[in-house]
Amino acid sequence: MEGRIAYIDLSFFAHATEDQEKVLTAAKKLFPGEHAERVSFSRSRLTGEYGNPIIFFKTQIREPEIAESLLLNISTNLPLVDKEDLGRHLDLHLEGGNLYIRLDKQEAYMGRFRLCRADPIRIRVRFKMSNIEDIRKTCQEIGLIP
Fold first, then answer.
1. What residues make up the domain containing 37?
2. What's the CATH number where 104 sits?
3. Does the chain have fewer CB atoms within 10 Å around its N or its C terminus?
C-alpha cells in the first residue's frame, strides 16, 4: 500500500441534538489507539435549515503511517457483508482516483464499523492512481473488499 495513497479526508457533522465530543470520539475510534491522539480536527460552525447550530468537523491525513493504519483498522473491523457490498458497487464509490466511504457515526462510537448513507462519517481516500483496476487491487490488498 505504501506510496499508493496521497491523503485521506475525514469529515462529519455534529448536529444540535448530538454531543460534539461523543461524535468526535466516534471518529477517533476509526484510528488505532496510538494514532487517534495524533489526529486533530478543525471545527466550523454552521446554521441548519431551522436555525439550529451544526458543527462541521474535518481533517486531512497526509502522513502515510496514519493513513495506512486508518484503512487497515477499517478493513479489519468492517463486516464481510459491507466489504462485499463495497466490492460489488466499487464503481459507485469511485470518482477520479478518489474512493468515498461513509461509516455510521453511532456504530463507530460503539467501536463497530458499518457502511451507511444517512449522516455518516465521510471518508475520501485519494489514490495516486486513477485506474479503477489498480484501485480495486489496492482495496483488495488492504482488505476493504474481498
1. 5-142
2. 3.30.1440.10
3. C
> What's the CA gap between 56 and 97, in Å, rounded?
25
**Number of domains, the chain:** 1
* pLDDT band per the 50, 70, 90 thresholds, residue 145: very high
Do the bridges between strand 42-47 and strand 5-15 make them parallel or antiparallel, or are there none, so unpaired? unpaired
- For residue 83, CA distances in Å to 70, 77, 137 come to 16, 10, 14
* 73 contacts 32 by C-beta, under 8 angstroms: yes
Cell matching residue 43:
471545527
Residue 45, judged by CB atoms within 10 A of its CB (0-12, 13-18, 19+), counts as exposed
Q: What is the DSSP string of 86-106?
A: HHHTHHHHEETTEEEEEEEHH
Q: What is the pLDDT of residues 45-85, one digit of tens each?
A: 999 889 999 999 999 999 999 999 999 999 999 999 999 99
Q: Which three cell numbers stand for residue 91?
A: 464503481
Q: Helix %, strand %, coil % for the chain, to 5? A: 40, 30, 30
